[in-house]
Design goal:
The protein has helices spanning about 1-20, 25-35, 40-65, 70-75, 75-90, 95-100, 110-115, 120-155, 155-185. With about 200 residues, the protein is mainly alpha-helical. The N and C termini lie far apart (about 50 Å).
Length: about 200
């Protein structure tokens, strides 16, 4: 168990940064719980999660900027999600960059859709970092709270680790269920152009 704790201490931040690209909420909650156990540093967990999510958003933004509608044509499901992202963009404009992480199934399509608009890269990154700070602090802080409650109730490290990870998994499933409900509720779609223009000549934001 000591070796496992050392492994988490050594590679935990990398795992959180990589996890933020895929299951971000789970990674941040688990990282916060490990910080409560003293294995990781809480602020380093926030930084790792922020780095991972911003790098993922930047990659999607660049795909949208340089590949545009071709990516949507290659992946029909993605094209439908791009339409929804444009609909949300029509409602919220550039403010959507700050909090699109909280929209269901929006972490890939939304930055890609912004890449297909005229928004400057520097402006997108600035707003994305601001939203990423809120997102990582919220879920990381929730994990820290869950971890501290668990530590106060369970004094065995092995039991704490099992309970903490279990709670993180349950929380992730609840979040997924919430997102599914939000997604099934439906959103009005904005009729995006059939072939959005690339590299700064598309929809103005």
């Amino acid at each position: 168990m000591i070796h496992f704790a050392q492994f988490l201490h050594t590679y935990g931040y990398v795992a959180i940064a990589v996890g933020a690209l895929f299951e971000g909420e789970f990674s941040m909650i688990a990282g916060g719980a490990l910080a409560a156990a003293g294995i990781l540093n809480f602020w380093a967990v926030i930084e790792a999660g922020l780095l991972g999510v911003v790098m993922g958003d930047l990659g999607c933004f660049l795909i949208g900027r340089y590949m545009g509608h071709r990516a949507g044509a290659w992946f029909p499901n993605l094209f439908a999600r791009l339409q929804r992202a444009f609909a949300l963009m029509d409602d919220y404009e550039e403010k959507l960059v700050v909090y699109f992480q909280f929209f269901p199934a929006g972490s890939t399509a939304t930055p890609m859709a912004f890449g297909m608009t005229r928004i400057p890269l520097a402006k997108f990154l600035g707003l994305d970092v601001a939203g990423g700070v809120v997102w990582s602090a919220l879920f990381g802080g929730f994990g820290l709270l869950v971890g501290r409650i668990t530590v106060s109730a369970v004094h065995s490290f092995a039991l704490w680790l099992a309970a903490g990870v279990g709670l993180a998994v349950v929380t992730c499933l609840v979040l997924r269920f919430y997102r599914t409900l939000r997604q099934s509720g439906g959103h009005k779609l904005w009729s995006a152009p059939a072939a959005p223009t690339l590299s700064g000549t598309g929809t103005s934001v």
